[in-house]
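Is this the right way to post structure tokens for a design question? Let me know if I should format differently. Anyway, here goes:
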């Protein structure tokens, strides 16, 4: 198997036993180039089985979200605060078309709506949602000025899934990204981040290649919100680079270098 990020060979890394109906043992492989780790078992799984596993696990994770991640709601509030600040300085412009891709139950959009009236943060989720969520047919290429994904990139299954998300952005659009990005993935089956539907585990080196591949020119990371902003517009970047709480660079901000990577 070759790495979809850098094209280097991937080799066996570790195995974890979940003992679930749709996932018993899961094999992980690691890229010799960028260090990306993927769950080979999930990548090889038939799509219908993958969707069944996702629906089963998302229902459980939504019910017990605070038990799995006690800081989940605090982080969502912090991210809503960041988005409101971006609206105030004109990075998230009032006329922008913005979407929360993989919105779950839509809390982030709701929290933001309590802080600003425009632009509204629309909601999309492939597994959850209601009549207030965008339908799949509206998720067309180059249709959004601002896309935010929270706890999504670890669920993606390779290049096609990654491409589908970045393709949503306009030529000068901004991607806001919350996921776990490590300097090196621990070879530890008990690592908290090895969840049944976490298919792709990102390293700084791998994310830096993705950053460059999709034409981003600058990056800002907000430490408290655990949120990266990947920007194609240096003019918009100039509006936020001096704001408190951000670490900035004209490349991917590889902030997390040391363990425990949480």
């Amino acid at each position: 198997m070759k790495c979809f990020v850098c094209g280097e060979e991937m080799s066996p890394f570790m195995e974890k036993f979940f003992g679930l109906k749709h996932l018993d043992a899961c094999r992980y492989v690691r890229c010799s180039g960028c260090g990306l780790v993927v769950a080979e078992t999930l990548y090889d799984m038939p799509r219908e089985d993958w969707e069944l596993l996702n629906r089963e696990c998302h229902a459980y994770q939504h019910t017990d979200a605070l038990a799995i991640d006690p800081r989940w709601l605090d982080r969502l509030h912090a991210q809503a605060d960041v988005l409101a600040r971006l609206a105030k300085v004109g990075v998230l412009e009032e006329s922008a078309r913005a979407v929360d891709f993989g919105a779950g139950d839509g809390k982030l959009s709701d929290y933001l709506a309590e802080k600003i009236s425009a632009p509204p943060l629309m909601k999309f989720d492939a597994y959850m949602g209601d009549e207030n969520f965008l339908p799949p047919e509206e998720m067309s290429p180059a249709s959004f000025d601002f896309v935010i994904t929270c706890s999504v990139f670890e669920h993606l299954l390779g290049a096609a899934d990654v491409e589908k998300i970045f393709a949503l952005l306009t030529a000068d659009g901004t991607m806001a990204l919350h996921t776990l990005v490590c300097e090196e993935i621990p070879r530890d089956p008990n690592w908290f981040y090895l969840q049944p539907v976490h298919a792709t585990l990102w390293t700084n080196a791998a994310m830096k290649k993705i950053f460059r591949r999709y034409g981003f020119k600058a990056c800002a990371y907000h430490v408290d919100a655990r949120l990266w902003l990947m920007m194609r517009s240096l003019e918009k970047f100039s509006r936020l680079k001096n704001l408190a709480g951000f670490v900035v660079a004209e490349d991917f901000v590889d902030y997390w270098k040391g363990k425990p990577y949480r």
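Format looks fine. Someone answered above. Worth noting: The chain has one domain: 10-249. The two ends are 28 Å apart (CA to CA).
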